[in-house]
Design a protein that fits this description.
Elements lengths: L2 H15 L7 H16 L13 H7 L6 H5 L14 H23 L5 H26 L32 H16 L4 H4 L2 H20 L13 H19 L1 H13 L5
Helix pairs in contact: 1-2, 1-6, 1-7, 1-9, 2-6, 5-6, 7-9, 10-11
C-alpha cells in the first residue's frame, strides 16, 4: 500500500487513542504526529531502492549485494522483513520512549526518572506501535511479490500475507475511508455535547472504518496475486486496479482522485 495511506492510517488510529488521555491541543498534535510516524516508519526498509544507496549505505556497511537485490531478497534488512514485524514495532517503540527521555533529560538537566517519564508518556508508545500495526495490516492484502508477504513474526522465516486482494497503489476507496475517519475523530472532541463520549464515539468510528475497509478489500472484482512480475502482468494489474476504482467511486469522484494522484511525486 502507498506511503500516504500508511501515514494516514497511523494518524487515524492516533486520533482515536488520543481521546483516552487528558491532553492539551499541542500535545494532541504531537500524539497524532507520532501515530503518523509509526504508520510510515516500516517502509524505511525500502531505502535500498534509493539511487545512491550502493555508494552510501552499501559502501558504509560493506554490503556485497546491490540495493535492488537487497530490496527484493529476504535479508533481515530487506523490504517487508524486520521492519515489517511485530518484534520491530515493540523494539522501535521502546527506542522512541528512550530517545524522548534522553532528549528531555539532557535539555532540562533534571533528575527525571525513566519509569515516571514512561508512565506520563506511554500514550506515545501506544500510538506509535499501533501506527506500525496499521501499516502491517495494510500490507497483508497486497501481492506476495518476491517476498511472499511480510515477516510479521520475525525472527521466524515464515512470511505472512501476500494475499493479492488489492493492488500496491490506486486504493483510493480505502484512502478516502481513512481520511473520513481521521477528520471525524478530530472533529468529535470539538463539540461540547459529544466530548464526554469521545472515547466511545471515536472508537466506534474507527471500528466501522476497519469493517468498511475489510468489505472493500474482499469485494474486489480482480485478483492481484503474483510472485514473479513481468512488465505485462504489472501493467495489466495496474489498469485493473484503476478500473476497479472507477467502478467503486463513480466517474466523477474517480477523476478527482486520479487527478490528485497525478499531481503527487510518490506512488499513490
Amino acid at each position: 500500500m502507498d506511503i500516504l495511506t500508511h501515514a494516514l492510517s497511523g494518524a487515524a488510529v492516533a486520533t482515536s487513542a488520543s481521546t483516552f488521555v487528558k491532553t492539551t491541543p499541542l500535545r494532541k498534535v504531537k500524539i497524532i504526529l507520532t501515530g503518523t510516524l509509526g504508520g510510515m516508519l516500516p517502509d524505511i526498509d525500502a531505502i535500498s531502492m534509493w539511487p545512491r544507496f550502493d555508494a552510501t549505505f552499501g559502501k558504509l556497511f560493506g554490503l556485497a549485494d546491490t540495493g535492488k537485490i537487497i530490496y527484493s531478497n529476504k535479508f533481515w534488512y530487506s523490504h517487508h522483513a524486520f521492519f515489517h514485524s511485530l518484534t520491530a514495532s515493540i523494539l522501535l517503540g521502546i527506542l522512541l520512549i528512550l530517545s524522548m527521555f534522553l532528549i528531555r533529560k539532557l535539555s532540562k538537566k533534571s533528575d527525571l526518572h525513566i519509569i515516571d517519564f514512561t508512565r506520563s508518556h506511554i500514550i506515545y508508545f501506544v500510538v506509535f506501535v499501533l501506527g506500525i500495526w496499521a501499516h502491517l495490516a495494510g500490507d497483508l492484502p497486497t501481492p506476495a511479490s518476491a517476498w511472499g508477504g511480510i515477516a510479521l513474526w520475525w525472527p521466524s522465516e515464515n512470511y505472512t500475507g501476500g494475499y493479492g486482494k488489492i493492488w500496491w497503489w490506486n486504493n483510493y476507496d480505502i484512502f478516502l475511508l481513512i481520511t473520513c475517519c481521521t477528520i471525524a475523530n478530530l472533529t468529535i472532541p470539538m463539540f461540547r455535547t459529544l466530548r464526554d463520549n469521545a472515547k466511545a464515539i471515536t472508537t466506534t468510528i474507527l471500528s466501522f472504518t476497519i469493517i468498511f475497509i475489510l468489505i472493500q478489500i474482499n469485494t474486489r472484482q480482480y485478483g492481484y496475486a503474483y510472485t514473479k512480475s513481468t512488465a505485462t502482468t504489472y501493467a495489466e494489474m495496474e489498469q485493473n486496479s484503476k478500473k476497479e476504482q472507477q467502478r467503486i467511486l463513480g466517474k466523477r469522484l474517480y477523476k478527482i482522485m486520479d487527478r490528485f494522484d497525478r499531481t503527487l511525486r510518490i506512488y499513490f
